[in-house]
Amino acid sequence: MTPRVAVVTIAHGRHRHLERQHASLAASSVLPEMHVVVAMDDVVLERWRPDGPLRTQVLRSPTGRHGLPLAAARNRGFEHAIAAGADVVIGLDVDCLVGPRTVAGYRDAVRDQPDVLWSGPVTYLPREARECALEDLAELDAPHPARPAPRPGERTLDGNPDLFWSLSFAAHATGWAAVGGFCEEYVGYGAEDTDLGWSWAASGRSLGWVGDARAYHQHHESENPPVQHLDDIVRNGEVFARRWGRWPMEGWLAQFEQMGLVSREPDGSWVRTASEAAR
């Protein structure tokens, strides 16, 4: 059977999160015909063959000289799904569980308006909900306040490209091909999703939010600001500034500056401080 709706997940580690995501997809009201998992420098995941009703394929990601190739890995997954016949492709972060209507909500929105890059509200689950039952997700629904959150049954258009994030989104194969997917100059953490939002808007297409496509981000430990990704953020910020004329992620960069990790140059660019760069 030719797959028409596919889900693409990129992963490095987080195997338990991926297993739970797979279970949530298998419990969907509409099953995706294909789940493409792109393993980034993860030989254990390359051998993963889950049981269940989903047709899962595990691909090996391209390599990244400076870190995990998030942009290239997503492109590899989308290209594989589209080549297999999918017209609706959903991108999920490995940490995200889906609600029972998420796949159907994305499928309907993408087919109704195939030029729109669609996103759905994402709830960050608390630590104590790490192993919650899938049927309890609706009771935990509390979408991130920094992003639009239409109610179930609602859609909004003309989304701000600065607010696009790759945790949960969907696109039509024709729109994806026209825009070109993620820019693979970005390697490691940061800015590749904002770049896609800007590229999509620059093509004359809209970004939208669909209330039925709710996702739930499983808890994991993280730093705020993400100092472990400092080099990636500075390097990818430089790429974004060259492509679009301004720096992204300036909230984090300002926090790094207060910590003495970066400084701002007279031309507006950000660089590692001399003491940090020498380490």
Automatic annotation (TrEMBL):
Give an example GO molecular function: glycosyltransferase activity
Ordered alphabetically, the record's keywords are: Glycosyltransferase, Transferase
Q: Does the keyword Glycosyltransferase apply?
A: yes
Pathway(s) of this molecule: Cell wall biogenesis; cell wall polysaccharide biosynthesis
Transferase listed as a keyword: yes
Family under the similarity heading: Belongs to the glycosyltransferase 2 family.
Name by which UniProt lists this protein: Glycosyltransferase family 2 protein
Query: What are the top taxonomic ranks of the organism?
Result: Bacteria, Bacillati, Actinomycetota, Actinomycetes, Propionibacteriales
